[in-house]
Structures are given as C-alpha cells and as structure tokens.
Design a protein that fits this description.
Layout: H1 2-34, H2 39-60, H3 64-85, H4 96-107, H5 110-133, H6 145-195, H7 205-221, E1 225-233, H8 237-243, H9 245-262, E2 268-273, E3 276-284, H10 287-302, E4 305-307, E5 310-312, E6 316-323, H11 330-346, E7 352-354, H12 357-378, E8 383-391, E9 397-407, E10 413-414, H13 416-426, H14 429-449, E11 456-460, H15 471-482, E12 489-494, H16 495-499, H17 503-515, E13 518-524, H18 532-536, E14 539-544, H19 552-571, E15 575-578, H20 584-593, E16 597-598, E17 607-608, H21 612-625
Parallel strand pairs: 6-7, 9-11, 11-12, 12-13, 13-14, 14-15, 15-16
Antiparallel strand pairs: 1-3, 1-6, 2-3, 4-5, 8-9, 8-16, 8-17, 9-10
Helix pairs in contact: 1-2, 1-3, 1-6, 2-3, 3-4, 3-5, 4-5, 4-6, 8-9, 9-10, 12-13, 14-15, 15-17
The structure holds ligand C2E and magnesium ion (2 copies).
The site of ligand C2E has 25 residues, from strand 9, helix 13, helix 14 and strand 13.
C-alpha cells in the first residue's frame, strides 16, 4: 500500500513537471511566433500565451487536472480560431491537432482525450461545411517566412513535447521490466528454498518426490527401471558427538559434494533426513550397473574426510528398491529401500542390499513381535530361568546364570536371541533389563535363605543399558530391595560392549565395582579377544564362548586357542568359565588345561525358578559323592 502510494506521488510529480514543461515550451513557441504575427493573429497568440501561463500556475499548484484542461482547451480554441480566421481546413493550425491529441492521451483522462478528439473531428467537419456552404472563405495566403516560423514552432513544440512524454513512457516500461525480473528472481529464490535443503543445497524430501514422479514417468514410457538407493551413514553420530555439530554439518556438506560429483545429470541426489540420502537412478539397464553405482557411492563415502584438521572416516549402508518392480509409490518405495538398508546394516554395514518381499515379511514379523514385546512387558509374561555354574574340580555350584525366557500361550518359548536384539533396538531393553536385575536379586536372596547360603547370580547386560547412566543406581536399588550383598551379583558384558569403551561406560563399571558387584566378560573369543582391556574394566571372570567347546569337533579344532586363553586369563588373575560344556570328556580336558569353572547341558540346561532348588540340591549331592 505504502509502495503504491509512493509510486502515485512520484508519478504525479513527473506529470506535474511535464505539464509545466509543455506549458513553458509551448508558450515560448507562441512568443517566438508573436514576433512575426500581426493583427488578429497577434491577439490569438497573446491569448494563447496567457492561457498557457495560467495552466502553468495551476500545474505548479498541483492542480494537474485543471492545468491539463486549460492547456488542451486553450490550445484547441487557439488552433480553431486560427483555422476559422485563416485558411479553414487548409490552415497551418490544423498541423497542431495531432500534437494536441497526443498530449490529451498522455496527460489527461480518457474523458478529456475523447472530448478533444470529438472537438477536433467536429471542428474539421464544421470548417468543411462552413467553407462548402460559403459561410467562410478560406484565405490561403501566399507563402512567406512567417509561415515557415509558424510551421517550425508547431513542429518543434509538438516534437519536443512528444519526445519527453515518450521518453517517460520508455523509462516507465524499463523500470517495470526491471521490477518484473526482480519479482521473478525472488520467486525463483523462494521456490529454490522451498525445494532444497539449506545445509547441502540438495533437493529435499518433498521435492525429491516430485523428481521421482518425473523420472518415473520417463522410465515407464521407455519400459525401464528407476532405482532408489537409500543411503544411511553408519557412524555419523560419533562424529557429531566427538567433534561437534558444526563438524558434522561440514562432513555432510563435503559428502553431498562428493556424491553429486559422481552422479550423472539424470541421476538425482536428495537429502532425505539427518544422515540419510537418496539417489534416484533412472534408466537402469541391469543389476551390474546398479551395483557399480552402489560401490562407487560407498567408496566415495568411506574415503577419509578432513574436518577441523582431523581425518574422519564414516561408512554407509545402502538399501535398494526399484520402480516399477517394487512398486510405483514414492513413500512405499522409500520404506522398502529403508528396510533393505537396515538389512545391509545387519549384514555388517558398509554394504548394499536389495529389497525383496521376504524382507518385507521379516519386517512385518518384527513389527508384530515388537507389539507383542510391549504387551509382554506390560503383562509381565517374561520368566527367568537359571543355569548352574560349577567348579570343575569339586563339582560344587558357584553361581547360577539368569537367562530370560518368554513363554507363549501355546506352550512354546521364544528364546532371548530372537527378542533381545529387538528390545535393544526399540529401547525396551532398559525396562526389561531392570526387571531382570531386580527379579534375579529377589530370587537369589530367596534361595540363600532356603539353605543355598553362598549362591551367586550372573545377570546378562546389554550395552544399551549403559546409555542413560542409570545402571549403577538401578543395581544398587535392586540389591537393597532384595537385601542381597553386592558380592552375590555378577554382571556379564559382551566383548562388543567393551570395544565401544567410552568414558561413560567405564565410569559406570567403576561405580558398579565399588559397590562390590563383579564383572564377567561373556562369549569371550568371538569378538576382538583383546585381553588388555579386561583389566581396565575390573573384570574378574572370563567366559569362554560355547562355540569353542560345545561339540567334540569344535573342541578338537579350538583346543590350542582355548588353552592360550586359559593361560593368559590365569596370568591376569581372572577366573575362567567355559560355557556350553555338553560332555564329560570336554569337561575333563578343560580341567586339565586349568579352566576353573564350567556351565552347560552336561550339568543342566537353564531351569525355571520353581525347579531350581531341586536341581541345586541334586548337584550338591553329586558333588559330595565325587
Ligand atoms: P549367554 O549369556 O552366552 O548364555 C548362554 C547361552 O548358552 C544360553 O542361551 C544357554 O541356554 C546356552 N547354553 C548353555 N549351556 C549350553 C550347552 O551346553 N550347549 C549349548 N548349545 N547351549 C548352551 P540362551 O538362554 O538362549 O541365551 C542366549 C543369549 O541371550 C545369552 O547368551 C545372552 O547373551 C542373551 N540373554 C539371555 N538372557 C538375557 C538377559 O536377561 N539380558 C540380556 N541382555 N541378554 C540375555
Ligand atoms: Mg551370559
Ligand atoms: Mg555366553
């Protein structure tokens, strides 16, 4: 509104200036003509000059409409008077009419222009009629210098006035054009911002959908496939955590540039979310071509980045879905490529995986299992089973390991290997794990009162339980509630947890050790098998993974390695427990190698709490008989 008002003000000022200029120029022209005029001509010119001065004054006082009226009507009247008193339709004054019409069109309103036009037409008709009827006799004088002066005055005045008016119009057009292109530019900018991610300048998810529709239409027309490659960085979070968000942003920007550089013009790169990208690869000829692209993307991602003068490496997992083979709906395809990407992560990361329907089914099953898991927790469907740990030399029971079981209404049992990973991914493990600690402490306290006075319990922990830093508090409370001494509790950690060793985990392990809880390293030998970190974590027990000992063949193949582990553990002052002992022969060989304790079906599988006292009594009797 303000802008329109300002434009109006400046337009009126220009109009005022032009009116004043035209009045002045025309008056000057008439004054020049006065010099060569005489008689009636002189009087008409003089009247014209007076009218122009009046129009000038009105224009000066901002009365633009009145000024325009006075200018145009006085000039029309003046020219008519010349024509009437002079040569009629042949009079030189007629030459002034076109100029008048131009002024009227530009300076006046539409009404004024039409009035002047009608006046000019009427004037011409009248002059013709009057002449033809003989009421006026055209007085066509022979040519003289003053005639030339009149003609030149008319031409110069009208020519000059038309020139300045047309120049104004040109300027106006040019500024309009400029304004227009500015508007177009800012519209394009707004459109770009709406369609692109501000950090990487890549197409965003919603624009990605538009690009997908366009690509798909072209591919379908040529009966070709459009591939969607869903890229997720495997270890971007640690970069953000360790180097800060600005460094994380820098990495994403560099990554976007690298990936864009290896893609062709018709392939699109989209920033899907935080560390997720999507590549649209149209016109895919065969899977080989697609695999080459996936490999190139991975190698671009895995090449080291220099961020804050630090070399940073990340990797990526890629899920691939194709249209129309896997569907034509963008969201559905993204979901499928996402499922395949998760499968690539499960396959060990830094790789790609194609979507297929079995993945969808597995995902559906997982989803259902997750729902069941939530309900199971709510309804306390879980049970703890216990498997004894036995001193190999005496057969005495040293502890029991608490193992989670999930009985189903149909009598079957879902094993922990199936639901623990899901509980970890969904975060439910915190609630479930706390329940396990609490329940195990209660059970063992109960058994200690029932005569198994020195019984200890080993509880498995997941790395996720360390995330929120609450674990030492949870353990302390569980021990207090059950009135169980901390020495009766052992916590089993897997090697992978120790590999990610952060100060955060270390602090909590120290707090737990200070409580008096012991730490055991579970499944030793399957992961990185680095003994040096065991001391840092105050571990007191090493559990040799069952894959080394379960079968005779495994034992044959792994005996030297097991021996080395036992010897090294012994030198570090750690107790070794061999898991998965199924046969007496294996048990004896382990004993001969210096292994202190064992656990396995040879003694018993894990049993429900209700059967545990009987099992423990039986094993105690057997030990005494030895
Ligand atoms: P783990 O801690 O290594 O537990 C030992 C596994 O070996 C148990 O399987 C046990 O039933 C099995 N096992 C014991 N003796 C033998 C044997 O002689 N031969 C063979 N072939 N297997 C034997 P389970 O109960 O299926 O548990 C599997 C894994 O699930 C556990 O491995 C542990 O990592 C995890 N898990 C179990 N309960 C919990 C829990 O409460 N919390 C967490 N975070 N993980 C748990
Ligand atoms: Mg265990
Ligand atoms: Mg184990």
């Amino acid at each position: 509104m303000q802008q329109i008002f300002e434009q109006n003000v400046s337009f009126n000022q220009v109009r005022r200036r032009r009116l004043m200029q035209i009045c002045a120029i025309t008056a000057l022209g008439l004054i020049a003509a006065l010099a060569v005029a005489n008689g009636i001509t002189f009087i008409i010119f003089a009247a014209g000059v007076a009218a122009l001065l009046l129009a000038f004054v009105f224009a000066f006082r901002q009365k633009l409409q009145t000024a325009a009226y006075i200018l145009l009507w006085s000039m029309s009247a003046m020219l008519s008077a010349f024509a009437m008193t002079g040569a009629g339709l042949f009079d030189l004054a007629i030459l002034g009419y076109p100029g008048l019409l131009v002024f009227a069109a530009i300076l006046g309103s539409i009404g004024l222009f039409i009035s002047v036009l009608l006046f000019v037409i009427a004037q011409c008709i009248l002059l013709t009629w009057l002449t033809l009827q003989g009421y006026i006799t055209p007085n066509i004088p022979s040519l003289s210098w003053p005639h030339l002066v009149f003609i030149l005055v008319i031409f110069i005045v009208t020519g000059f006035c038309i020139y300045i008016l047309v120049r104004d119009i040109k300027r106006l057009m040019w500024s309009l054009q400029l304004e227009n292109s500015k508007v177009e530019q800012s519209q394009a900018k707004i459109q770009h911002l709406a369609n692109h991610d501000s950090l990487t300048n890549l197409a965003n998810r919603s624009y990605g959908e538009t690009l997908f529709q366009q690509s798909l239409a072209a591919c379908l027309q040529q009966q070709q496939q459009l591939a969607l490659l869903f890229i997720d960085l495997d270890n971007f979070k640690p970069v953000n955590d360790a180097l800060g968000h600005a460094a994380g942003d820098d990495l994403l920007k560099q990554l976007a540039q690298r990936l864009r550089a290896i893609l062709t013009k018709d392939q699109a790169l989209i920033r899907f979310g935080g560390d997720e990208f999507l590549v649209l690869a149209p016109h895919v000829a065969d899977s080989q071509q697609l695999e080459q692209l996936a490999d190139r993307l991975i190698s671009q991602i895995t090449a080291a980045f220099t961020i804050l003068q630090t070399q940073v490496s990340v990797s990526a997992s890629i899920g691939i879905a194709c249209a129309p083979a896997d569907g034509t709906d963008f969201k559905q395809l993204c979901r499928k490529a996402d499922i395949a990407m998760y499968r690539a992560k499960e396959e060990g990361r830094n790789t790609y995986y194609y979507f297929d329907d079995s993945l969808d089914k597995a995902n559906d099953d997982k989803f259902k299992l997750l729902q069941m898991l939530r309900l199971g927790l709510l309804e306390q469907q879980f049970r703890l089973y216990y498997q004894p740990q036995v001193a190999l030399n005496s057969g005495r029971i040293t502890a029991v390991e608490a193992l989670l079981r999930w009985p189903q209404p149909d009598g079957s049992m879902i094993g922990p290997d199936q639901f623990i990973p899901l509980a970890e991914n969904s975060g439910l493990i915190n609630e479930l794990g706390s329940w396990v600690i609490d329940q195990a402490c209660q059970h063992i306290a109960q058994l200690r009162q029932q005569g198994f006075a020195h019984l200890r319990v080993a509880v498995n922990l997941s790395v996720v339980q360390f995330k929120d830093g609450q674990l030492p508090g949870i353990v302390r409370q569980a021990l207090q509630r059950a009135a169980l001494p901390a020495q009766a509790l052992e916590l089993e950690l897997t090697e992978s947890l120790l590999v990610d060793n952060t100060d955060h985990i270390l602090q909590q392990l120290n707090a737990l050790s200070q409580l008096g809880v012991t730490i055991a390293i579970d499944d030793f030998g399957t992961g990185y098998s680095n003994l040096s970190y065991l001391q840092r974590f105050n571990a007191s027990t090493l559990k040799i993974d069952r894959s080394f000992v379960s079968t005779d063949a495994q034992w044959q193949a792994n005996a030297p390695l097991v021996q080395a582990i036992i010897q090294m553990a012994g030198s570090l002052g750690l107790t070794t427990i061999a898991e998965g002992i199924e046969h007496a022969a294996v048990m004896e060989k382990l004993l001969a190698l210096g292994c202190k304790e064992g656990q396995g079906y040879y003694w018993s599988p894990a049993v429900a709490m209700e059967q545990l006292p009987a099992l423990l009594s039986k094993l105690q009797l057997q030990a005494k008989a030895l």
